[in-house]
Amino acid sequence: MRASAVRDSERLLERYDATAAAHPALAGRLAPLRSAVAAHAGALAWPAAGAGGAPGKAAGAASGSAAPTGAPSPGGTPPAGGVQVPPEPDKALAALADAEQALAEARTAALAGAPGELARMLASVAACGAVHVHLLTPAPGAAS
């Protein structure tokens, strides 16, 4: 269950990276959210990282930097990792918000079967994901 949660966070990191690469003007806005997702991956992986592992450093997880790892290729094909980013910035943010929402809901659903410490971690990470959804979604009536 923990390994699956780490993979989910790593996939979300790929989505943040692909979105920032496709829309460089959004990179600054996405950087703190991406950093939080990287920290979640590290925190979820920490007990399984083995001796010498430290919180915040997932084995094989992306770093906490906001540097994009895969720019979209010409012709609209997805970058390495298979993340398709909408060409419009507002739709790209909406897709990212949808991914955060889906993951937060999945993590909340997983709480019932998770052991104590992992359940607490999943609840915390799900709550943070819900905040990310709020931050990625424009307020009703707000100008885009």
Which structural traits does this protein have?
single chain, 144 residues
Give a verbal description of the structure.
The radius of gyration is 15 Å and the shape is globular. Helix content is 58%, strand content 0%. It is built from four helices and no strands. The chain has helices at 2-22, 27-45, 89-110, 116-136. With 144 residues, the protein is mainly α. The relative contact order is 0.17.
Provide a concise account of the structure shown.
With 144 residues, this protein is mostly helical. Helices cover 58% and strands 0% of the residues.
Number of strands: 0
Estimated radius of gyration: 15 Å
Structural class by helix and strand composition: mainly alpha
Helix content: 55-70%
State the order of secondary-structure elements, H for helix, E for strand.
HHHH
* Uncertain runs: 49-80
- What is the arithmetic mean of pLDDT? 81
Strand content: under 5%
Number of distinct helices = 4
Main sheet: strands, sense, barrel: none
Distance between the termini: 38 Å
Coarse shape: globular
Topology, element by element:
Elements: H1 2-22, H2 27-45, H3 89-110, H4 116-136
Helix pairs in contact: 1-2, 1-3, 2-4, 3-4
